[in-house]
Amino acid sequence: MDPELEAFVPLFPKADLTDPVAERKNLAELAASVPPPDTSGLEIEDRTVPADPDVPVRIYRPHQARGAVIWLHGGGFVMGDLDTEHPWAGRVAGLCGAVVISVGYRLAPEHRFPAALDDAYAVLAWAAEHATELGFDAARLAVAGHSAGAGLAAALALRARDERGPAIRFQLLNQPQLDDRQQTWSARHFTDTPWATRDKLTASWRHYLGSRPATPYAAPARADDLSGLPPAYLATAELCPSRDDGITYALRLLQAGVSVELHQWPGTFHGSQAILSADVSQRQIAELAAALRRALAD
After folding, report:
1. pLDDT digits (tens, 9 = 90+) for 208-229
2. In the predicted model, what is the mean pLDDT of residues 47-56?
3. CATH architecture, domain 3-295
4. What is the rounded CA–CA span in Å between residue 192 and residue 197?
5. Which of 32, 215, 244, 267 gets the most CB atoms within 10 Å of its CB?
6. Residue 298 above 80 pLDDT?
7. Rounded Cα distance, 94 and 100, in Å
């Protein structure tokens, strides 16, 4: 493990997701302890996207932005909101120069699949329809997320392709949660790694799916056909149970004819980029933003 990250491991909460309400509080406290991003160059606005039910969003507008990113937070489908995601959404918006639309999707187990995906898709459709009002070019629209949010972003790309929905120019999947089956080498061996453990992931999928079988829109790794999807940037953490799911998904995208940039970060663990003082975390965040900037440029 990267020594700068290892020093912080004892400070991470031992989240196990058996009590989602308690873990939401823990995540909120952790997010509040993260240094806030510099948003001096951004206009920030809270809006509500008309849907059934309506979906809260927070919009970050850099000056002279041309593209936009639908940003989906992590939290195992059961934690996170617009406030806990503010340090990351604001930081990415400031660095990538695109409008970032952070989505406050409904959480499991109160709202199981497909509630979160339905909310995200409603925001995607709304953003594409209101691109001029929101200040970006509708042809420069990306979907992105971290962890469970990255899994939702991958599912958004699949659904938009299948339903001939809004055109997505790019998908950015950071440490994505893609497969409920947990059969890879990393899923079987990294059972007690920091922040993400096998038991935590099992509980996350149980809360999200309930008794329903997983479909490709719930667990995108189950999709048989990955052709025709947007170009992707996919990043994985070395010491993460979901690592091999992400690498396998990237290879399958490549084999389906999709252009992919794959970055495996050595010495990191799931969510370790929250430790902003570490050099590797600064490089991870800068690279995520740079990938979006490149994808949405001319």
Report:
1. 999 999 999 999 999 999 999 9
2. 97
3. 3-Layer(aba) Sandwich (3.40)
4. 5
5. 244
6. no
7. 9
